Amino acid sequence: MGRTRHSRLKQTVSYQTQGIFLGILLGLGAPLGGFLIQWILHWFLTGSSDNLWIQSEFEKHSFFYTYMTASTPIVFSLFGYGLGVLLDRLAYQKQNLEVVNVVLRGQSISDDMTGLYNHRHMMDQADKELERMCRYARPLVFMMIDIDNFKSINDQYGHLTGDQILREMAFLLRDNVRKIDIVGRYGGDEFLVILPEATLTSAFKVAEKIREHVDAFQFCKPNLFLSMTLSVGLAAVHGDCDMTRDRLINLADQALLRAKRQGKNFISS
């Protein structure tokens, strides 16, 4: 009745429906008739209606063309017209689509410059962590970080150097926070770290670890080594369901300004 031809594998298979099939199409209408034909062929060839997925288009000329995609092996009639495609082709397409969706989601929540979470995603995460803090009465800390004298670095060495410093700073932040902490670029040379299950004491230890590593790190470009420092502001909340995202960020930002006034390279709460 038929045979498999791997050399003729195509994503979409076209076959002509003539004779008795044409009569069914004329009687039921192209969409319904075409679907019925494809279902009958699938059942006849496989003995089952399982795993059938069909997408059809119809064009009316002197005969009908039905464009079918089905999750069956490629089976060819005696006239050589293809009736289906391999199941693993659909699985492959589905897998590729899943990969594309993961990539697109990553791009939508990531900052292009640093690879950290972007501002919008960090705001979403801040709302979620505040809700969790309220529901379970757990501690939470927001950490605002600013690179000291970043504007003068940009002005003196150029924006390409500034961009490289931002990327290296992002690496240092990721490498020195806890696994459950959420790190993102807030904007410009400011970063936000959300620390679930953290008190001011434990958050200060994380901040100090970051500050020490940045202070010891040599930011380099050809024939140039730069030392950078950070100022850090901390704001904590525990069980206060009236606390909002913007208010807690503002508290952390005020603490950051106090750290700047202390001479920079400082942590304040």
Task: Describe, in plain words, how this protein is organized in 3D.
The protein is an alpha+beta fold. It has two domains: 6-93; 110-268, Alpha-Beta Plaits. It has eight helices and ten strands. The strands form three sheets. Strands 5-6-4-9-10 form a five-stranded mixed sheet, with helices on both faces. A three-stranded antiparallel sheet has the order 1-3-2. A two-stranded antiparallel sheet has the order 7-8. Helix 1 crosses helix 2, helix 5 (150-157) packs across helix 6 (159-176) and helix 6 (159-176) crosses helix 7.
Which class do the helix and strand fractions yield?
A: alpha+beta
User: Low-confidence runs (pLDDT<50, min 5 residues)?
Assistant: 1-32, 51-87
Taken together, the total number of domains comes to: 2
- Strand content is 15-25%
E-strand count: 10
Strand order of the largest sheet: 5-6-4-9-10
Counted by DSSP, the helix tally is 8
Tags for this model:
269 residues; alpha+beta; 2 domains; 5-stranded mixed beta sheet; disordered N terminus; transmembrane; diguanylate cyclase; GGDEF_dom
